[in-house]
Amino acid sequence: MIVIPEIPYDIDKLAEACEKRDSKGFSIMAVAEGAFDKAEAKMKKKERAKYRAEQGLTTATSRIAKQIEEKTGRETRVCIPGHMLRGGSPSAYDRVLATKFGVHAAELIAKEKYGYAVAMIKEVVSENKLIDVAGKTKFVPEDDQLVKYAKDMGVSFGD
Prior knowledge:
This protein has seven helices and four strands. The chain has helices spanning about 10-20, 40, 45-55, 60-70, 90-110, 130-135, 145-150, and strands at about 1-5, 30, 115-120, 125-130. Helix 1 (about 10-20) packs across helix 4. The protein is elongated.
C-alpha cells in the first residue's frame, strides 16, 4: 500500500487492504509524512494541525499504524528507514550519473554560475536555479502513469 498527500486515504479501505493481504502473509505500507485522510482533506492546514495535536499523534505513520491496529486487531510496527533506504552499493548507472552531475557542477563553477542545482531534465543533465526549486514541493498528479500502473498491479492508495 502507498499513502501520499495527493490521494487522501480512507482508513477503512486501508484496513480492508491490510486484512486481504494479511491472509497471505503480511502487509507493507509506505506512508508519506504529508498524508491525510479524506476528512482531513476538507480541513484547512491549521485546522488539520490542531485536530492531529488533539489526537496526540502528529506523524502520519503513527496515526495510520494506530488506526490500522484498532480496526484490524493486528499488531502494527512503524519503521522509518531514513538513510538506510538511501544506502546500498551504487550501480554502474549511479556512478555514471554522479560523474555527469559532478562534471556539470564543475562547469557551472568554472563559469562562475552559482545558485544552481544540477538536475536531469528529460534525460539531459542540466541545471535549475535554486530560487526556482528550493522549498517547493513536487506533487504527484493523481492521474500519473505510475499511480495508474501501481493501482493496476493491485497496490492500494486507500482511496
